[in-house]
Amino acid sequence: MAKMALSKAPKEPRRRTIRNNMWYVYILRCADTTLYAGTTTDIPRRVKEHNHRKGGACTRVRLPVKLVYKEPCETQSQALKREAQVKGWTKKKKLALISHNKAALKQLSKSRD
């Protein structure tokens, strides 16, 4: 008896969910005026999480928070490196970044030796 080849039904194309692959570094201003930096691919969702006490521990006791700065990065690695850089800055320098004050950023970047 000859075996019949089973014909497979043609595969349906996978439905791709539209996903934003762009990463962002963001800065939040907390209710007590402290600044918090983080990374995400979805800024509105992340700000909402922070304001519902599902964000970083630092922001949970400083609610509400408000988005004051965002910067796109092409990869997660770039975003994490930039976040670490910004977190190491003084509040004054972060405020210069937020206000896009290039002159102040340049001055604050000079060595303090």
Any overview of this molecule?
- This protein has 113 residues and is of the alpha+beta class.
- Helices cover 36% and strands 19% of the residues.
- It has a three-stranded antiparallel sheet with strand order 2-1-3, sandwiched between helices.
- Helix 4 packs antiparallel against helix 5.
- It starts with 22 loop residues before the first strand and ends with a helix.
Count of helical stretches = 5
Give the overall form: globular
CATH architecture: 3-Layer(aba) Sandwich
Q: Provide the low-confidence segments as ranges.
A: none
- The succession of helices and strands, N to C, reads EEHHEHHH
- Cα-atom radius of gyration: 22 Å
Tell me about the biggest sheet? 3 strands, antiparallel
Termini separation = 90 Å
The CATH homologous superfamily name equals GIY-YIG endonuclease
Estimated share of beta-strand residues:
15-25%
Which class in CATH terms?
A: Alpha Beta
Structure summary, number of beta strands: 3
Structural classification: alpha+beta
Number of domains: 1
> pLDDT average, as an integer?
87
